[in-house]
């Protein structure tokens, strides 16, 4: 760490603010879940009605004194606000409480730091933390105005604070360069999948909606899944075989949350791009959650921020085992396309329906069938092989080639038209003459 702080513990007082703006309001139950996910031992939850935040403390001075007395009585070592605090507000509150003060962004960053497992995930968390820390660097220093001195070092020089800010900037630049390399590697992998015509599907949704449990059930993987917020941080990709469609790449991604700090969206852009470059998004929704409509809105807001809100989306209502009278089913729109699947990832009920719906949505622009090519169309046969579209090859008694192929219809139409043939006739008969 670049600065000194009060020795912290896990005994925490949670401060939830209620105001007149419903859009800026936070959920107190979600706040408690966040604190528990971070490992805090909650001493008390204090609700403060505050319609006009103050610049010095965010809350009124009278309530600050009440909280100070509560901190001393309960021997709490941490006060967490379910709101964003400015650096000066954090410093002022710490000075009064004589213990650590954390805001909502700092709490989420701490959870992310605990969950990061891969090198990339740790870099992303560190970038967000350093960015958050850079505005709070002044807090712990007691010798900010002292110049570095000593023989050969006297003169204008840098203050210690300036030195540390420079070190922060250097480290942030290094991390961004490393993440840019990760980003290019991901893009290269995606280009390879596109060349092989392998569709990609991403699981997105509110945190703790059951994405990882669904991912494990579909792919028979063992990705860490738990009933806690942000159990998944690092993206995981697995190959999934679907009937009548072939292989697809399924990605499990980090969960979203209301008012997700912009620093995290920026830091995790390389990871979130896995979603924004998918052919289909599976929006996993907790059907048992009372505030699921608000959670859906929050997910769509984050998808809009990363440019993924225009992609095809299939809603997956999970946890129907907790809802009475709901059976696994596919709900379709006016054109007959699947738009919603109800299932239970934990019990495995409805998983086949989800596979069917995904195959329908991805397969509508995909041709899967057997072509009969006479010997004169050898060049067309070679082009199918170049595109990795051939699944199997055989020959009939007349010497014609039978190719079982799988590729986008637009690509098939282009190749067939180039040979002077009529694509519509060919598609109906599944043969080339």
UniProtKB/TrEMBL annotation:
Gene Ontology CC, one term: cytoplasm
Keywords of this entry: Coiled coil, Cytoplasm, GTP-binding, Hydrolase, Magnesium, Metal-binding, Nucleotide-binding
Source domain of life: Bacteria
Hflx-type G domain segment(s): 199-366
Localization terms from the record: Cytoplasm
Gene Ontology terms, MF aspect: GTP binding; GTPase activity; guanosine tetraphosphate binding; metal ion binding; ribosome binding
Pfam families xrefs: GTP-bdg_M, GTP-bdg_N, MMR_HSR1
Positions annotated to bind GTP: 205-212, 230-234, 252-255, 318-321, 344-346
Residues in coiled coil: 165-192
Alphabetical list of InterPro entries matching this protein: EFG_III/V (IPR035647), G_HFLX_dom (IPR030394), GTP-bd (IPR006073), GTP-bd_M (IPR032305), GTPase_HflX (IPR016496), GTPase_HflX_N (IPR025121), GTPase_HflX_N_sf (IPR042108), P-loop_NTPase (IPR027417)
Co-factor(s): Mg(2+)
Listed CDD domains: HflX
Amino acids binding Mg(2+): 212, 232
Subunit organization: Monomer. Associates with the 50S ribosomal subunit.
Family classification: Belongs to the TRAFAC class OBG-HflX-like GTPase superfamily. HflX GTPase family.
Role description: GTPase that associates with the 50S ribosomal subunit and may have a role during protein synthesis or ribosome biogenesis.
Protein name: GTPase HflX
Organism: Aquipseudomonas alcaligenes
Recorded name of the encoding gene: hflX
């Amino acid at each position: 760490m670049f600065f000194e702080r009060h020795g912290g513990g896990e005994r925490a007082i949670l401060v939830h603010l209620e105001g007149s703006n419903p859009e800026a309001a936070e959920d107190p139950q979600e706040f408690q879940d966040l604190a528990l996910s971070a490992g805090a031992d909650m001493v008390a939850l204090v609700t403060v009605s505050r319609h006009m935040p103050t610049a010095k403390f965010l809350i009124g001075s009278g309530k600050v004194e009440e909280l100070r007395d509560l901190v001393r009585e309960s021997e709490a070592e941490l006060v967490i606000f379910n709101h964003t605090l400015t650096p000066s507000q954090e410093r002022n509150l710490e000075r009064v409480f004589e213990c650590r003060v954390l805001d909502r962004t700092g709490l989420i960053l701490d959870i992310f730091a605990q969950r990061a497992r891969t090198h990339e995930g740790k870099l992303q968390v560190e970038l967000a933390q350093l960015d958050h820390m850079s505005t709070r660097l002044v807090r712990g220093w007691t010798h900010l105005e002292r110049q570095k001195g000593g023989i050969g070092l006297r003169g204008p020089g840098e203050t210690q604070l300036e030195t540390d800010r420079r070190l922060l900037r250097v480290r942030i630049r290094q991390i961004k360069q490393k993440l840019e390399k990760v980003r290019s590697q991901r893009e290269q992998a995606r280009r390879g999948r596109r060349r092989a015509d392998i569709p990609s599907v991403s699981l997105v949704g509110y945190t703790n909606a059951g994405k990882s449990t669904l991912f494990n059930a579909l792919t028979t993987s063992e990705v860490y899944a738990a009933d806690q917020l942000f159990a998944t941080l690092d993206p995981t990709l697995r190959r999934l075989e679907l009937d009548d469609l072939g292989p697809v790449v399924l990605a499990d991604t980090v969960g979203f949350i209301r008012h997700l700090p912009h620093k995290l969206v920026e830091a995790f852009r390389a990871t979130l791009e896995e979603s924004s470059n998918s052919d289909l998004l599976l929006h996993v929704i907790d059907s048992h959650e009372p505030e699921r409509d608000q959670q859906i809105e929050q997910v769509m807001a984050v998808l809009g921020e990363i440019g993924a809100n225009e992609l095809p989306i299939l809603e997956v209502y999970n946890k129907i085992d907790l809802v009475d009278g709901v059976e696994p089913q596919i709900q379709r729109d006016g054109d007959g396309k699947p738009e919603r699947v109800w299932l239970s990832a934990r019990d495995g009920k409805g998983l086949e329906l989800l596979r069917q719906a995904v195959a329908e949505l991805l397969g509508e622009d995909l041709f899967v069938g057997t072509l009969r090519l006479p010997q004169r169309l050898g060049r067309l046969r070679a082009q199918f092989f170049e595109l990795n579209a051939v699944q199997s090859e055989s020959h009939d008694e007349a010497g014609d080639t039978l190719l079982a192929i799988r590729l986008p219809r637009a690509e098939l139409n282009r190749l067939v038209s180039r040979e002077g043939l009529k694509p519509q006739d060919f598609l109906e008969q599944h043969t080339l003459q």
